[in-house]
Amino acid sequence: MSSPSPEAAGSPAPRVRSTRQKAAVDAALERIEDFVSAQELHAHLKEAGERVSLATVYRTLQQRLEDGDVDTLRREDGEAVYRRCAVDAHHHHLVCRVCWTAVEVTADPVEDWAARVAAEHGFSSPRHTVEVTGVCADCAAAGRA
Amino acid sequence: MSSPSPEAAGSPAPRVRSTRQKAAVDAALERIEDFVSAQELHAHLKEAGERVSLATVYRTLQQRLEDGDVDTLRREDGEAVYRRCAVDAHHHHLVCRVCWTAVEVTADPVEDWAARVAAEHGFSSPRHTVEVTGVCADCAAAGRA
DNA sequence: ATAGATGCAAACGATTTGCAGGGTT
DNA sequence: AACCCTGCAAATCGTTTGCATCTAT
């Protein structure tokens, strides 16, 4: 369902071109350490004199996302925010009980909770196991639930 | 900054009315255990023959949210999903790896986290397993660690 | 009778996309 | 020259809101 991997035969070389606007977006992402929305990033660029259309900002962010160069998450109001990727913490898996598809998820709240309860009860060297399963959207839609 | 608390003098009684549509929304929230978006909830109602406008569903959910009757979070695509604040406090155990002493602990943060990650990724019927182990204070003191 | 509630449709704000022209390779 | 990329505007989509009407109280 993703990354069909490179081409089979002698295929068309790097099909992605480097342009002024992409460089501008990358530079901005580099400069801004926090999470920013596409709109905010666009405003930053405009303010800096960089002329890049909002559509291009969205398209570039989408690309960076696919390439795993940026992280994204939703703000409470639903706006998506991005940040250049800083690979971190250990994660757990959310597994579909039907097709066994697994999604990586971070479990910071759980790590914290585990450490806390252990500490609260005087336990040392805490260790934990966490497993979350469910029925993924595809399987549910296909009635495979 | 909120809930100005009841009225000072002899003021206008309960200003919120109970209506057929609010009851329908509440019933649906009661019936549906997982997180649902306003649109989905609206579809459920329509399918069940309940006639409630989408706008009213949104307004009612907003109210329930302000009253703290429902939880909300954003799905990956930015759509907001809601769930009646069910405090189904089931508990887990903290086990000593040396003497197998077990302590009951509540894991609300974990329950919430599990439900949240499942919802955020479109998984339904979430289920989870959590195990925390460590070395209890006694065993550690006795050098049995 | 009165003020809150509802339905409908228009308004909104974020994000996406079709299309024609422009720039990179 | 070939094809990707960009800009612009129109289209989507979830959610909010104005307004006339309805109804619980």
From TrEMBL, chains A, B:
Cofactor remark: Binds 1 zinc ion per subunit.
Listed transmembrane segments: none
One function term, GO molecular function aspect: zinc ion binding
Region (Disordered) location: 1-22
Binding locations of Zn(2+): 96, 99, 136, 139
Extent of the signal sequence: none
UniProtKB keywords: Cytoplasm, DNA-binding, Iron, Metal-binding, Repressor, Transcription, Transcription regulation, Zinc
Chief location: cytoplasm
Residues binding Fe cation: 90, 111, 128
Compartments, record wording: Cytoplasm
Cofactor annotation: Zn(2+); Mn(2+); Fe(2+)
GO CC annotation, single: cytosol
Compositional bias (Low complexity): 1-14
Any GO BP annotation: regulation of secondary metabolite biosynthetic process
Family to which this protein belongs: Belongs to the Fur family.
PANTHER family, per database record: FERRIC UPTAKE REGULATION PROTEIN, ZINC UPTAKE REGULATION PROTEIN
Subunit architecture: Homodimer.
Record-given protein name: Fur family ferric uptake transcriptional regulator
Species assigned in the record: Micrococcus flavus
